[in-house]
Amino acid sequence: MLKNRIANPVVRTLIEWLIAAALAILFFLVMRNFVFRVAHVTGSSMEPTLEHGDVVILNRVGWLMFGPRAGDIVAFPYRLDPSENYIKRVIALAGDVVDLRDGVFYVNDAPLDDDFSHERVVQRGDEEFPFRVPDGALFVLGDNRNGSKDSRFTAVGAVPVSDVVGRVAVRVWPWRLIGGV
Predict the structure, then answer these.
(1) Is 117 a catalytic residue?
(2) CATH fold label, 37-180
(3) Which residue among 88, 117, 148, 151 is the active-site one?
(4) What are the tens digits of pLDDT across the range 125-145?
(5) Residue 126 phi, psi (nearest 5)
(6) Where exactly are the structural domains of the chain?
(7) What is the pTM of this model?
């Protein structure tokens, strides 16, 4: 159809390239806004799972389709500076009761059993415990419990599910650690 309307082959080729470029840009924008997003880990709050300087891919589709689960690592904007994203682990969902006793977190009266943090918590934060997670929200912690600003602190608090940018799916940097998280 394009060949029949435009006789000049240079103009026809240029138009074909412009259409291809526009479709590539459209595809990129759809993928970036609805399927995945790149995030950079800053600080030590998620050590040893993620380290400062790591680059991760956030899965947005899976998050939208399946919603939150305890154990997910998610990214969300920091309440006091929305231009900064925090990356933390979900430990409790809406309606769950989180408690901190003798340096151990409990969710619904069961000790938090995780493979990524075995340290006793010495930073209590300024939230009151026990803490019931409000409807439509999540309670998140950094894996480095004593070096993390997370839901224990009112500056972060319970994270609205609607604020979550996506679930961390893959680490893409550094190269030696590429893979699922």
Answers:
(1) no
(2) Umud Fragment, subunit A (2.10.109)
(3) 88
(4) 889 999 999 999 999 999 998
(5) -115, 10
(6) 2-33, 37-180
(7) 0.79
